[in-house]
Amino acid sequence: MAAMEKPENKGARGLADAFGRRITYLRLSVTDRCDFRCRYCMAEKMQFLPKREILTIEELSALADAFIGRGIRKIRLTGGEPLVRRGIDELVRLIGRRVGDGLDELTVTTNASQLRKHAPALAEAGVRRINVSVDSLDPERFGFITRGGDLAVVLDGIAAAREAGIAVKINMVALKGLNEDEIEPALRWCAAQGHDLTLIETMPLGEIEDDRTDRYLPLDGVRRRLEERYTLSPLDYRTGGPARYFRVEELDARIGLITPLTNNFCDGCNRVRVTATGQIYMCLGHDDRLDLRKALREGDADELDRLLDRAMRLKPERHDFRIDTPGAAPSVSRHMSVTGG
Ligand code: SAM
Ligand code: SF4
């Protein structure tokens, strides 16, 4: 990579799209690879990107700096599984240096399979909160959903994060007939452990073996069922993402709902996503993208700036996910593991 001048603070030239939304949150995918094959996320046999196309750690760090220079205040590292990326500790250290210097928060979404090994480095770099995906607390079911994941290892990874002083939010994709009977137990487990829980509606991203319509569980119904037993009081609490939070009064717990299908949240969108090959996607639910890699590899900071300005003009108003037609092709052909969650 050609040396790129560290961009001066261009906070005044922050990123805003054509609908007046300020973009302050970057989800940066560091790899499309993963050691799990969650059934709703990936096909069993996935074709991964050639390694030469993937940005180096240095390039990812330079890209993060460029975004911070344009007013990005929060970065979430994701994937694929970010902790299987070689050099991840170094990347976290490099970006972590910007926390308090342009960046408010650096965080990670992980399946926790490698978390015990990496938790100390994350904490050291200034990561204070992470999201961990746990779709079942039953070892056999967990193994089934993830196609081979080991729940005990994941729970040990979560314990390691807590030992390192990192708060954990559990992500659970709500899946009809797979884990819907576990939602309430998961809520109680999270309450007992001191984790927040966020439920996510499955989104039609990429071809998989299952028909997502069969597994789709609308969260408005889940909420109604929970309200038969618990008092869910809406909260103003936000973490910068799309979740809407409720206090579960009887458990003194917090639950978040991410409802791309039943309750569109695009009005408040503050995010863009960059893949591990340097493609910026302005919306998870659209195919429009711009290639940042060439400008990055050539060290052309002005071109990178121009591309970010163009990206803002291209950001669509809202996603258009549909999941109601059995057998229909997914709304978007790329998997969530490419763009990152
Ligand atoms: N491997 C990490 C993990 O699983 O947490 C990070 C990447 S994963 C793509 C990020 C989040 O997206 C996870 O919470 C996962 O459950 C969720 N996810 C993956 N595919 C999805 C889909 N089709 N619909 C909804 N959520 C999905
Ligand atoms: Fe891997 Fe995360 Fe996708 Fe599961 S959801 S296959 S852990 S990227």
Helix share bin:
25-40%
Low-pLDDT residue intervals, each spanning 5 or more residues:
5-12
User: What's the end-to-end separation, in Å?
Assistant: 27 Å
| Alpha plus pi helix count | 11
Bound molecules: S-adenosylmethionine, iron/sulfur cluster
CATH superfamily: Aldolase class I
Strand order of the largest sheet: 9-10-11-8-7-6-5-4-3-12-13-14
Largest sheet: 12 strands, mixed
If you average the pLDDT, what whole number results? Answer: 91
CATH topology: TIM Barrel
The proportion of residues in beta strands is: 15-25%
Number of domains: 1
Total number of beta strands: 14
Report the CATH C-level class. Answer: Alpha Beta
Which term fits the overall shape? globular
**Topology as H/E string?**
EEEHEHEHEHHEHEHHEEEEEEHHH
Tell me which CATH architecture applies here: Alpha-Beta Barrel
The structure class reads: alpha/beta
Description:
This protein has 341 residues and is α/β, with parallel strands linked by helices. The chain has a single domain (25-339), classed as Aldolase class I (TIM Barrel, Alpha-Beta Barrel). Helices cover 29% and strands 18% of the residues. The protein contains eleven helices and 14 strands. It has helices spanning 57-69, 88-96, 115-124, 139-146, 151-163, 183-193, 212-215, 219-227, 293-297, 301-314, 336-339, and strands at residues 15-16, 22-23, 25-29, 74-78, 105-110, 129-133, 167-174, 196-201, 232-234, 244-248, 253-258, 271-274, 279-281, 289-291. The strands form two sheets. A twelve-stranded mixed β-sheet has the order 9-10-11-8-7-6-5-4-3-12-13-14. Helix 1 (57-69) links the parallel strand 3 and strand 4. Helix 1 (57-69) packs parallel to helix 2 (88-96) and helix 3 (115-124) runs parallel beside helix 5. Mean pLDDT is 91; it is low at 5-12. The chain binds S-adenosylmethionine and iron/sulfur cluster. Iron/sulfur cluster is lined by residues 34, 36-38, 41-42, 79-81, 111, 133, 337.
